[in-house]
Amino acid sequence: MMDGTEWDDLPKIEDVTATDAKAEVARLAALDPAAYETERKDAAARLGWRAAILDAEVQKARPAKPKGDEGDDAPEAIEMVEPWPDPVDGESLACELRDRIAGHVIFGSRHDADLVSLWVLGAYLNDVWRLWPKLLITSPTRQCGKSTLMEVLEAVLPRALLASNASTAAIFRAIETMHPSLLLDEADTWLRQNEELAGIINSGHTRRTASVLRTVEVNGDHVVRRFSTWGPMVVAGIGDQRDTLTSRSIVIGLRRKLADETTLRMPADLFDQMLRLRRQAARWAEDNALTIGASELDPPPCGDDRRRDNFGPLFRLAAVLGGDWPNKVAAGYLAKSEAAEDGAEDAGVMLLRDMMEIFDKRRASHIGTSDLVGELIMLEGQPWQEWKHGRPITSHGVARLMRPFDVRPRNVRELSSVLKGYQRADVYGAFIRYAKTPTSEPLHRYTPENITKSDDPIRYTTDPCSGFEIQKDKQEQRCSGVADKSGGLSEQGREPLDLDDPHNPDAWI
């Protein structure tokens, strides 16, 4: 929005004088935050300035807010860091970040410090990403260093804003006006049960969806305004968080320190000490934004498209950093994928697997609901015996878990009677789509011998001494943990049947 000024009338770079620049800064400082965000890149280009320098000058030119409506509790201004004056070696910077972050806490995995360091660097490239995952910090109990890690991250992230509690409105208004790296601590006490706030946080996963609509009062009228929810976000809490948050995050675990383990003492001036790293990270991001933004490098498939999307930006960062960082991110990706496979399974998916096991044992095309429930309760090692408040699962419980998969009880014939039950074909259709264990090679089985060679020099390895190469061309990429989708749906609208699958009724009828 140019306030009546035409683009062609604005001064070009070679014509800009100190007076012109001062006038342009004053004009930009008078804009509201949303309008300024729209114009900042073009304005910086016209002036021949870096965007970060323009941000700093505009911030200086804005009048101080009076302590009236906001009172003495008005939030402090977010830091506008000036990028380092000289080019920065990204590999060395990333290693220094990792060592500093790892020095203060005990991570749950040896790969976690590497992933956190890449995530921190990526936070300086907020304008580049189409999708950017949250960083979810978890610990099994208290005193595992969660708040310590949040304080360290506050010292190395751009425009950091740390809070241990916040209202829904405060979250999206802070993002809209301050464009911070938002750090939300103690999430287990105030976020887990807040549906509205969870929706706000989840909306910021992709740039296109990162906004919410709210009504605001303007001159006595209520008008609709869109607030941005796009920006780097760290969430920390004890125990598991919502599945919707976890699936949109790089999940990092922390452990309590043992007597023989040592960590660095937290200096009182940590934030000031880390200023050099913040400035160097800002300069490296500025110099490499175009290269990273143009990259289409993706991780190999892992059986979870959302996890693959979340790790995509980290793979692109590692490729530009070079050195051993591509190996590090690949190892972290593998570790998280394997941990997810070993983790708790969704109850509905678990039930699909168990129902198919019962059908296989009975070699039946249908089963009555009461018989099915009885079989489920008898399965050892499964939760159905004490499903709800110590009581066994019921027919209604089975129906509720199956409803999202469009598997519903039907009339089935048992001898001379008709009763409610489940058809094997219905369960099998949902099973192969949602619960069947992938038959393709797992990610860790990739070796140089069974992967098509690539012209891309980037190597992703689980071991620096014995790596593998990944073909970037998606059409030639070997599948790892993802069922083949080429068959699509049959004319009847159901998955094509695999006659070699022992669960397939056509294989034994």
Could you characterize what this model shows?
The N terminus is likely disordered. The protein is built from 18 helices and 12 strands. Helix 4 crosses helix 5. It starts with 17 loop residues before the first helix and ends in a 40-residue tail after the last strand. The chain is an alpha/beta fold. The strands form 4 sheets. It has a 5-stranded parallel beta sheet. A 3-stranded antiparallel beta sheet has the order 8-10-9. Strands 4-5 form a two-stranded antiparallel sheet.
Would you spell out the secondary-structure blueprint of this structure?
Blueprint: H1 18-29, H2 33-47, H3 51-61, H4 90-102, H5 112-123, E1 134-139, H6 146-156, E2 160-163, H7 168-178, E3 181-184, H8 187-190, H9 195-203, E4 211-218, E5 221-228, E6 233-238, H10 243-246, E7 249-253, H11 270-273, H12 275-294, H13 305-321, H14 325-342, H15 347-362, E8 366-368, H16 369-378, H17 395-402, E9 410-414, E10 417-423, H18 424-435, E11 459-460, E12 468-469
Parallel strand pairs: 1-6, 1-7, 2-3, 3-6
Antiparallel strand pairs: 4-5, 8-10, 9-10, 11-12
Helix pairs in contact: 1-2, 1-3, 2-3, 4-5, 5-13, 5-14, 13-14, 15-18
Structural features:
509 residues; alpha/beta; Rossmann fold; five-stranded parallel sheet; three-stranded antiparallel sheet; elongated; disordered N terminus
Gap between N and C termini: 69 Å
| Proper CATH architecture of the largest domain | 3-Layer(aba) Sandwich
CATH topology of the largest domain: Rossmann fold
Oligomer: single chain
* Rg, Å, rounded: 27 Å
Spatial strand order of the main sheet: 2-3-6-1-7
CATH homologous superfamily identity of the largest domain = P-loop containing nucleotide triphosphate hydrolases
What percentage of amino acids are in beta strands? 5-15%
Mean pLDDT: 80
Q: What portion of residues is helical?
A: 40-55%
Number of helices: 18
- Structural class, from secondary structure content? alpha/beta
